[in-house]
């Protein structure tokens, strides 16, 4: 039917979208972020010769490496999807065992498990709305798990955006003023390529 075609097309678009998001994010982080931030501390120039002052100011300016932060963000965003994929694989495997149990009457299944275990599988509610009867077979529905997975991914995205804002802000300043021991006075530090980094 048209609804089935639409749902299969939507799931295909969802998979393509997910892969593009992963690949594009990794490409931006690795190909653009790493070259831009690999020499960040070396090019963080402060107008002082006080030993240790530049290091302390850089630590105040960037408490976490941007590049490492984005790598942790990317991996964390993938965790809900990995959990959802494992859940789907588990449910599908159990569904196949249940179908095998229904077709063969839970007897003589040497390759799967003992007949007693398979009868228990048939009695358990592993698959929603599926009883041990061939007329009651239904299609597995993962919409609830998919919604939960999307909720956690969205929550993680929002949390990382908030952490990014509180750690770094969304714009890189041209000059960073710092007064912290061992600096004996207010020190101005200059960041390399601030406009490119803000973009």
Automatic annotation (TrEMBL):
One GO MF term attached to the UniProt entry: gap junction channel activity
Keyword vocabulary terms for this entry: Cell junction, Cell membrane, Gap junction, Membrane, Transmembrane, Transmembrane helix
Chain ranges of the Connexin N-terminal domain: 35-68
Cellular component terms per the entry's GO annotation: connexin complex
Secretion signal, residue range per the UniProt entry: none
Keyword Transmembrane: yes
Domain Connexin cysteine-rich: residue ranges: 156-199
One of the GO biological process terms: cell-cell signaling
Cell membrane as UniProt keyword: yes
Function, as annotated: One gap junction consists of a cluster of closely packed pairs of transmembrane channels, the connexons, through which materials of low MW diffuse from one cell to a neighboring cell.
Database matches in PANTHER family: CONNEXIN, GAP JUNCTION DELTA-4 PROTEIN
Assembly behavior: A connexon is composed of a hexamer of connexins.
Protein name, per record: Gap junction protein
Species of origin: Haliaeetus albicilla (White-tailed sea-eagle)
